[in-house]
Design brief:
Length: 388
C-alpha cells in the first residue's frame, strides 16, 4: 500500500464508496461519490441503479465533448436511459456568467427537459458550477449527476453542492447550495489534462492535509510526484481521502455556517488574485489557491500562531511540484494593494464588513479568524507581491 496503516490520518480503501448524508439537516437522502479507474463505462449502470431509468441531458464544454461525450452518451443509452440533445458550453472561466446561465436554461427547456429529466454535468469546475446552478433553477429544481473530468473538480468543486457564476463583484458571488444526486469520479479521465491543470488540482488535495490531517500532508510530500505522474493507486487514494474529508465537513455544515469555512483555506487571498486577473487563464484557480495557502501560513507564522517551519514546509512542497508560491507579475503593471484588499472584503465569507480568513496553528490545525488587523494583511501582500 502507498499509505501506512499506522498513520492516524484519514484513510481511503480503493473500491470504497464515499457517501454524504444530509438527512439530519434537511431530510434529504445521502448521495454517493464513486471513485475508480475507467469507471466512465459504468456510468449508465450506476445512474440507472441509483436513480432509475430516466431521460438524461448532458452539459459539457467544447474541450471535453470531443473526448468523452460520445462515450458517455453510448453508456447511458446502453443502460436504457433516454438521451436528450446535449448542451456544449465554451470552455473556460469566462463562461460562468449571467449570459451563459440564461442560454443554458433556455436550452434545457428547448431540448425537451421535464422535472424528471436528469442533468449530467460532464466536465471540470466551470461546467459543474454552471450546470449545478442551472439545475437548481430550471423547472424549480432538477436532479443532477456530476461526472468531473479534472482533478480539481474530482476533489473539490463536484462534491458538496456549491454552485455559482462569477460577477464583477467576485468569484461565485451568485449561486446556490444544491447537492448532486451522484458523483462519478473516474481518474482515467485525468490523462487528458495538461501537467499545469493537474498541478492546479493538486493544490486542493494538499489543502485537506493542511486543514485537519497532517499525516495526509506528509503522505503528499512523499507521494505527490507519483500522483502527478499518473500513478493510479496514488490518484484514487488522494481523491478518496479528499472526498472523505469534504463529505464529513459538508454533512456537518452544508451551508457554511461553521466548519465548512475551513475548506476556504487560501481562497480569500486566491480569489482576490483571480479577480484582479479578470479570471483569465493566466492564473488558474488552483494556482491562486496554492499562493493563497502559502500566504495564509505566512500570515499565521508572522502573527505567532504557527511555527515558521510549517509555513516553509507548505511553501517548499508546493514549489517542489511546480506550483506558484507567490503572485506572478501583474499583466498591466503594478498590483494595487488597496484593490486587492477591497476584493478580499467583497469575498462571500466576509461578515459585517470584516475579513474572514482561514489561518493555522500548524499543519493540520486550521481555524476561522475574523479579527485579523487589516494592516497585517496589507503587510503580507506587500511582502509577496512582485517588486517593481
Amino acid at each position: 500500500m502507498i499509505h501506512s496503516a499506522s498513520s492516524p490520518g484519514t484513510h481511503f480503501t480503493p473500491g470504497k464508496v464515499v457517501s454524504i448524508d444530509l438527512s439530519h439537516t434537511r431530510g434529504a437522502p445521502s448521495y454517493d461519490i464513486v471513485i475508480g479507474d475507467s469507471i466512465l463505462s459504468e456510468a449508465g449502470t450506476l445512474i440507472a441503479v441509483k436513480l432509475g431509468k430516466r431521460r438524461c441531458l448532458v452539459i459539457t464544454d467544447d474541450n471535453v465533448a470531443p473526448l468523452y461525450l460520445a462515450r458517455l452518451e453510448a453508456v447511458l443509452g446502453s443502460a436504457g436511459l433516454g438521451i436528450l440533445p446535449s448542451i456544449i458550453l465554451r470552455a473556460g472561466e469566462a463562461t460562468k456568467t449571467y449570459a451563459h446561465l440564461e442560454s443554458t436554461l433556455d436550452l434545457i427547456l428547448k431540448n425537451g427537459a421535464d422535472r424528471k429529466t436528469l442533468i449530467v454535468a460532464l466536465g471540470g469546475g466551470v461546467v459543474g458550477d454552471l450546470a449545478g446552478l442551472a439545475a437548481s433553477l430550471a423547472l424549480r429544481g432538477m436532479d443532477i449527476v456530476q461526472v468531473p473530468t479534472t482533478l480539481l473538480a474530482q476533489v473539490d468543486s463536484s462534491v458538496g453542492g456549491k454552485t455559482g457564476i462569477d460577477t464583477a463583484r467576485g468569484k461565485n458571488t451568485v449561486g446556490a447550495f444544491y447537492q448532486p444526486r451522484l458523483v462519478i469520479a473516474d481518474v482515467a479521465l485525468l490523462d487528458s489534462l495538461s501537467e499545469r491543470e493537474m498541478r492546479a488540482g493538486y493544490a486542493e488535495i494538499v489543502k485537506y492535509g493542511l486543514i485537519k490531517d497532517e499525516p495526509f500532508f506528509r503522505w503528499c510530500q512523499k507521494n505527490g510526484a507519483r500522483l502527478l505522474g499518473a500513478d493510479r493507486e496514488a490518484q484514487i487514494y488522494a481523491v478518496g481521502v479528499s472526498c472523505t474529508h469534504k463529505a464529513k465537513i459538508v454533512a456537518a455544515d452544508e451551508k457554511e455556517a461553521g466548519e465548512r469555512a475551513l475548506l476556504n483555506l487560501g481562497h480569500t487571498f486566491g480569489h482576490a488574485l483571480e479577480a484582479a486577473f479578470g479570471f483569465e487563464s493566466s492564473l488558474l484557480h488552483g494556482e491562486a489557491v496554492a499562493i493563497g495557502m502559502v500566504m495564509a501560513f505566512k500570515l499565521s507564522a508572522q502573527l505567532g500562531l504557527c511555527p515558521h517551519g510549517d509555513a516553509y514546509d507548505v511553501r517548499d512542497h508546493l514549489a517542489s511540484l511546480g506550483l506558484p508560491v507567490e503572485p506572478p507579475p501583474f499583466p498591466t503593471g503594478a498590483y494595487d494593494i488597496e484593490q486587492l484588499m477591497q476584493l478580499m472584503a467583497q469575498d462571500k465569507k466576509a461578515e459585517g464588513g470584516k475579513l474572514t480568513l482561514i489561518l493555522a496553528k500548524g499543519i493540520g490545525k486550521a481555524f476561522v479568524s475574523r479579527d485579523v488587523k487589516e494592516e497585517d494583511v496589507r503587510a503580507v501582500w506587500a511582502e509577496f507581491l512582485p517588486k517593481t
